[in-house]
Amino acid sequence: MLVVDVRKKLREFTLELSLTLNGGVTVIFGPSGSGKTTLLRLIAGLDRPDAGSIVLDGRTLYDARTFVPPYRRDVGYVFQEYALFPHLDVAANVAYGLRARYVPRGERAQRVARILDRFEIGPLAHARVTEISGGQRQRVALARALIVEPRVLLLDEPLSALDPSTRARVRTELHDILEDVAVPTLFVTHDEEDRATFSEALEIRRP
Prior knowledge:
Layout: E1 2-9, E2 14-21, E3 25-29, H1 36-44, E4 51-56, E5 59-63, E6 66-67, E7 75-78, H2 90-100, H3 105-118, H4 134-146, E8 152-156, H5 164-181, E9 185-189, H6 192-197, E10 200-203
Parallel strand pairs: 3-9, 3-10, 7-8, 8-9
Antiparallel strand pairs: 1-2, 1-4, 4-5, 5-6
């Protein structure tokens, strides 16, 4: 369970938000500039709230006396443009989080192979991410986020980098993947079709 009750002063307004995520996918919906990405960054530890608390499965990640750094939060984050490393192949991108946690090479290779097969991108293991499609890059980004077995997954506009003809197909694929992996997920979007694909939604707007 993720429990968020935070306040953060932004350039033009103060974001004040409370939510509880028990499981499944919750869509955070709203226009650009309403604080959606800021919310994800606060949960991930990339930004610090001005006040409040963030608690994940009973463990305090942030309050007046506590700030757990991002690499210790058990949070998976898929950025809007995926933030894949163009100089690395697919397998090396997916393995990045395991390397940062000093997982031994043999175990790392096994876990990468398993998750690539699970996401049906095993044959792309040695391809550069610049050589694969947008939908395939999204799968790589999801695999990289999930291979570290996070307790919560954060998706920041995960379909916005795709062209319109691809977006509908990949949206359906993403729905099926998230249903299969069963990790509590916050999905940020301003797209009505994304919002309609998932049953739970929280709309936030600027004051």
